Amino acid sequence: MPAVEVHQLAQCITCHAWSPDRTMVALCPNNAEVHIYKFTMDKWERVHVLFKHDQIISGIDWSLRSNKIVTASHDRNSYVWNHEGSEWVPTLVILRLNRAALCVQWSPKENKFAVGSGAKTVCICYYEPENNWWVSKLIRKRHDSSVTSVAWHPDNIFLATTSTDGKCRVFSTFIKGVDTKDSGTSSSRDLKFGEQIVQLDLSSSWSFGVKWSPSGNTLAYAGHNSTVYFVEDVRNSPSAHNVAYRNLPLRDLLFVSERMVIGVGFDCNPMVFTKDDTGLWSFAKFLEERKTAQSNSKYGSQFSEAFGKLYGQSRHGANDGVDSLRARGIAHENTITCIIPLQKEGDKIVRRFSSSGLDGKVVIWELDYNTDIPE
User: Can you tell which superkingdom this protein's organism belongs to (predicted)?
Assistant: First the structure.
């Protein structure tokens, strides 16, 4: 059983990100604002509120090296926030979108970031010092529907995306003048910007939560059909393996190590997937132990519980599913939408990570190397 810290910071949280020193957390409380909390005197104190977006913020990422925050919103805009003195100053990013921005992530070297959108487009954004602004190059006409998540390969060049068209794709994002000659492999530098490396047609439903393993050898993403897809050796000769499970779908994934993945989603309890010595992935367990229900559950109450979790009914409303979750003692009481690593830069194994969800909680998890993480 992992160590768990539960912090109620809002009524509902869309996404969150941590500062480089892990003393502050930025989150969106399901509106157009970013709230930044700092842990002082044994409690979380709100120290900043960032106002600039007009609609709900759907993505936040906080760079580890440059201490910049990037946000993406349904208002089709993205801002890069710089900490100047005691204030956070926003800089508008020229995205050129006609639909909502849905997700955002800094590249490993933090000289670029990617924005997925409802316009079937991915924006690769970079800074132009001559004009003192952030501009973007667009990957267009590759997706058939909204881009739900993006993930950078460790080489800083390849980018994986998932979409509601059910596909996972990998693209080259090499930009002359931004990426140096030593970026990525020799083969990646020969590829044009936006060139598609591979298209994976493994899922028959919406796809979410794409992630690379620490080495970049394995790619994983979740389908809305309660299946996780694992793909080895993506760039050369891809081999795929899928793991179907009986529980509700996942929304986000995290590689703890090369052989362990944690998924979070509508089931409110993180799920652990592991890779055995033969190279096959399988569902291992729930991260938290479930308590046995005290009363006899009828079919109606079971359906109500599943319906409440799947469609995110408020934890303050009258809902048998939410009451049942609370009775079981699970940290999250509603859909988990985001999972973020808390390890130091360069660590190959993630021992600490955090999750946030529609219940307004940020939960910090700490795994035991001896019992929780496979070698």
Answer: Eukaryota
